[in-house]
Amino acid sequence: MTKIEDAVIHEVEDEVSPKNWKNIFWTAVKTILKIVISGALLYYVFRNVHFADVKYRLYHANYWWMLAALVSFFLSIIVASGRLLSFFRSIGLMLDPRFNFRLYLLGLFYNFLLPGGIGGDGYKIYLLNKSYKLPAKKVFWAIMFDRLSGLWAIGLIIVALIFLIPQIDVQITIPLGIFAVGSAIYYFVAYRFFREYTKFFFAAHAKAVVVQGLQVMAIVFVLIGQDFSGKFSPYLLSFLVSALATVLPITVGGAGLRETVFQQLTKVFPMDKTLAVFLPGSFYIISLIVALLGVYYVLRPSRLAKGLPSIEEK
Fold it and tell me: What is the 3-state secondary structure (H, E, C) of 28-54?
């Protein structure tokens, strides 16, 4: 186990079961810092956009379309859990799909509940390492490739959207060529140094495209619910760019960071500023609603274990 992987395990153990006052203090400090950063970013956003205007959009939204956005996001989570399962099966971790989905929901919940620490991905590493005695290194890299596949899919859709936005004055062959070369290098490195994780590589990345496609559709539904009749592509591209920004673990669930990125991109693309704040805000609410489903497995952990294969099957 490398120092990085060992640090992940120890950090999650300290997050789940703090051993001393220093662990508790450091976790509290990280949580407070993330809350402060989210608050500062939201303050900056609402200095330029009136909160009352954003609230008006929420109150007058078509909630049937908002429900469609919620369903679309939930479906993306189902597919995303299957994507992660593909990488788990690459390392011989044959989880029951039902258990894997429950664990995925629990991970989403912990991403919001444990904003100061390693979050849901780290908890998966901790639990699977503890339950299956599988080297943490393998679980760590399976989850890492799951994340990378999501970033790859975002890049693919961004390239497609660039073609639809006239404000981006660049020949489509340039971003397409960069993406193609980057994808080739990505696969070469994965196959050369992490061959074990490429057993279901293409299937997992196909699922990643479906995941991001469903989340983009959720934004489309939110826009339709606002009686929007303009060009969708600038908003969708801004949404994906803001998703890339949330890779930085500096805020609580991306709160404030998405809105800030959206607002800055209104200076580049012809977007309504109020709508550019409402979209990431509504997406945050939708993702939080789905993530809260994971609290059930915190309150009833025995339900999470239902579906675990027997020791002989591990």
Answer: HHHHHHHHHHHHHHHHHHHHHCCHHHH
Residue 96: predicted pLDDT: 86
What does the H/E/C string look like for 243-286? HHHCCCCCCCCCCCHHHHHHHHHCCCCCCCHHHHHHHHHHHHHH
| The two three-digit tokens of residue 275, written as one number | 């709508």
Q: Measured between alpha carbons, how far is 39 from 33 in angstroms, rounded to an integer?
A: 10
Say if CB 259 and CB 41 are below 8 A apart: yes
Name the token pair of 160.
């497609």
pLDDT along the chain (314 residues), means of 10: 55 56 68 84 86 89 95 97 94 88 89 62 80 81 93 93 76 87 95 92 96 96 92 91 82 81 86 91 92 87 65 44
**The pTM is what?**
0.86
Is 145:91 a contact under the CB 8 Å cutoff? no
Domain spans, the chain: 3-309
**How far is the C-alpha of 215 from the C-alpha of 196, rounded, in Å?**
29
Class of residue 253 by CB neighbours under 10 A (exposed 0-12, middle 13-18, buried 19+): buried
Tokens (6 digits) for 165: 């936005």
Give the Å distances, CA to CA, from 41 to 49, 121, 233: 12, 25, 25
Residue type at 139 in one-letter notation: V
At 81 the pLDDT is 95
Sequence-ordered strand ranges (E) for 125-198 = none
The predicted pLDDT at position 296 comes to 87
Q: pLDDT at position 74, please?
A: 97
Contact residues for 86 (Cβ-Cβ < 8 A; gap 6+): 200, 203, 204, 207
Instruction: Give the pLDDT confidence score for residue 43 in this predicted structure.
Output: 86
Instruction: Kindly report the number of other CB atoms within 10 A of residue 182's CB atom.
Output: 12
Q: How far is CA 231 from the centre of its chain?
A: 25
Please tell me the distance from the alpha carbon of residue 275 to that of residue 35, in angstroms, as a whole number.
24
How many Cα atoms occupy the beta-carbon half-sphere of 143 within 13 Å? 23
Tell me what pLDDT residue 83 has.
96
